Amino acid sequence: MKFSSAVAAGLFLLASMAQVAVAQVEREKLLSEPGVYGTFAVFKLSEDWWKVDKAARASAMAEVKGVFQKHADKIIADTYLLRGLSQRADLMLRVHAREMVHNQNFLLDVMGTALGRHLQNVETFNGITKKLNYVPSFPDELKTELKTPPPQGSPYAIVVPIQKDAEWWTLAQDERTVMMKEHTDATIAYLKTVRRKLYHASGLDDLDFITYFETARLDDFNNLVIGLLKVEENHHNKRFGEPLLLGTIRPLDEILEVLAR
User: Fold this and answer.
1) pLDDT tens digits, 56-112
2) Spatial contact of 191 and 144, defined as CB atoms under 8 Å apart
3) Which residues are catalytic, by number?
4) Which end of the chain is more exposed for a tag (fewer CB within 10 A), N or C?
5) pLDDT tens-place string over residues 192-225
6) Alpha-carbon separation of residue 186 from 4, 150, 192, 234, 258 (angstroms)
């Protein structure tokens, strides 16, 4: 039995849609489940990159795309443009996998490309996602507030690394819970406009936490941070930012186009 070209095209389209759906499900699992490793790799382009002729830059972009495709079954990688908003860096990759070695292998391959040889790795943060420590002890009313759906389609991303002092870790659990409730209360007004994800970094990095935010309202994020700086828990932050990274969430193709100009 022979299929018409229209039927064949339809089947190919359905298969492609199914692959996209499966990939999206896997992405959502990696971004929501505990026990997933996250790596934030931040890069600055060397000045020599802009001296490379345009045809060679275009070829280098295709090589980078190939690396992303090669590792697509092991990791998910989100791309951010920092150039124009930061003197420190031009590009950030946020990589998730169930094994840290998959993040490492992907980044090694990126840095081994023609473009990668012009990238200076100025920052790398490593963490792991965990179940919420304090929320189970919060009042039911606050738990309900925390179920507010996060914003979608935000153009800005902010990364704030945090390191606690030694006293924080010696406090009793109930003392920390009281302070984290005050911390959480200060965030309630911004749940609809600022999305947040927490990574635990103790033992995996010089940090204790990596906080990742997405928003379309940088004014709300500014007010959120001011509110968090006022709570008691902030007195136990040895490091808040330093660096604080601000960029725009961009598809890989768009970022490569900018870097190929």
Assistant:
1) 998 999 999 999 999 999 999 999 999 999 999 999 999 999 999 999 999 999 999
2) no
3) 196
4) N
5) 999 999 999 999 999 999 999 999 999 999 999 9
6) 61, 16, 13, 12, 38
What tokens were used for 126? 């490593």
Q: Residue 102 contacts by C-beta under 8 Å, 6 or more apart in sequence?
A: 71, 74, 75
pLDDT at 136: 81
**Beta-bridge partner residues of 212:** 159, 197
User: Cα separation of 121 and 43, whole Å?
Assistant: 5
pTM exceeding 0.85: yes
Amino acid at 225: V
Q: Mind listing the domains of the chain with CATH numbers?
A: 36-127+249-260 (3.30.70.1030), 135-247 (3.30.70.3420)
Residues in the chain, total: 261
Q: How confident is the model at residue 132, as a pLDDT?
A: 82
Question: How many other CB atoms are found less than 10 A from the CB of residue 192?
Answer: 13
